[in-house]
Design a protein that fits this description.
By secondary structure, this protein is α/β, with parallel strands linked by helices. Helix content is 22%, strand content 33%. The chain has helices at residues 75-84, 120-131, 153-162, 190-196, 211-224; strands spanning 6-17, 20-26, 40-44, 53-56, 66-72, 90-97, 109-115, 138-144, 166-172, 184-185, 203-209, 232-236. The structure holds flavin-adenine dinucleotide. Residues 40, 53-56, 69-72, 74-78, 117, 120, 235, 237-238 line the site of flavin-adenine dinucleotide.
């Protein structure tokens, strides 16, 4: 059966960094998707229906009536959206899909590893935890090149300040020694992940971003930290 396509209006299109745009797609009247926080949507433009690309929804189930996506200027679709998507445009959207879902169940803990724009689904996790006032501990370890590349910096720090179960930690990988950044430097490594682990058997680990970063994260988790594969969820962006 062909997937049901919905035409959505670009209700908001805001540059949140010099190369990242937050786009809000308004659901059409009567649209009621089976959407779960952490899923992605596949979008395309009306003039190029054969060119479709997936974007993680960075809003959550509690954000009713629209999907938000955070898009980086990269490749054909990423560049077109960042440089050209504007309020009033129409985009076509396939139903939400994917199994990269937060597990907020009792006794569970989540440790999320993000690379670059791979933080987008974790913004959705953090929003759901905040809006539902959930007590599940959620730690986001976020690797970026420089502090200027942190997407949703203010929002994620504010959510973490308001929710003592949420921890948002950043590491920068491409700083010169002279850079004044006082935070962590270098890639996400096993030692840093280990510091976040309180109850290994009940912790679900998530990794999202470029394939190389996600595969390295999986290697660290399985081979250096002994995490069971069934407790790891990954989303590779290619
Ligand atoms: C499940 C899922 C969720 C995703 N969520 C997001 C998200 O939330 N935000 C986001 O920004 N992206 C996300 N992506 C990636 C997104 O789908 C697109 O792949 C991305 O925007 C790039 O657009 P494109 O595929 O049209 O690029 P393409 O033009 O197909 O290029 C693909 C890659 O190749 C590189 N490339 C292209 N031409 C050359 C060349 N000549 N030399 C060297 N390199 C080249 C591009 O820089 C790009 O990195 C997600 C992907 C998946 C699978």
């Amino acid at each position: 059966m062909p997937k049901q396509v919905a035409e959505m209006l670009v209700e908001n299109a805001t540059m949140v960094l010099s190369d990242v745009k937050l786009v809000r797609l308004r659901w059409p009247v009567g649209y009621s998707p089976e959407f779960r926080t952490g899923q992605f949507i596949t979008v395309y433009w009306p003039d190029t229906p054969s060119y479709k690309r997936a974007y993680s929804v960075c809003s959550c189930v509690e954000d009713k009536g629209y999907f938000e996506i955070g898009v980086k200027r990269d490749g054909k679709m990423g560049t077109r959206i960042v440089d050209w998507a504007k309020v009033g445009d129409k985009m076509l959207v396939l139903p939400p899909a994917g199994r990269f879902l937060p597990e907020f169940g009792p006794g569970k803990r989540m440790v999320c590893l993000a690379g670059g724009s791979g933080v987008t689904p974790f913004r959705a996790f953090a929003r759901e935890a905040a809006l539902r006032q959930l007590s599940t501990p959620l730690t986001i370890l976020y690797s970026v090149r420089t502090p200027a590349d942190v997407i949703f910096n203010d929002e994620l720090h504010e959510l973490a300040e308001a929710n003592r179960n949420l921890h948002f930690r950043v590491t920068c990988t491409r700083l010169t020694p002279e850079d004044p950044w006082k935070g962590r430097r270098g890639r996400i490594n096993a030692a840093w992940i280990k510091e976040q682990i309180v109850d290994l058997p009940n912790t679900v680990f998530y990794a999202c971003g470029p394939t190389v970063m996600v595969e390295e994260s999986e290697r660290l988790l399985v081979h250096e930290l002994g995490v069971a594969k069934e407790n790891i969820r990954v989303e590779k962006w290619g």
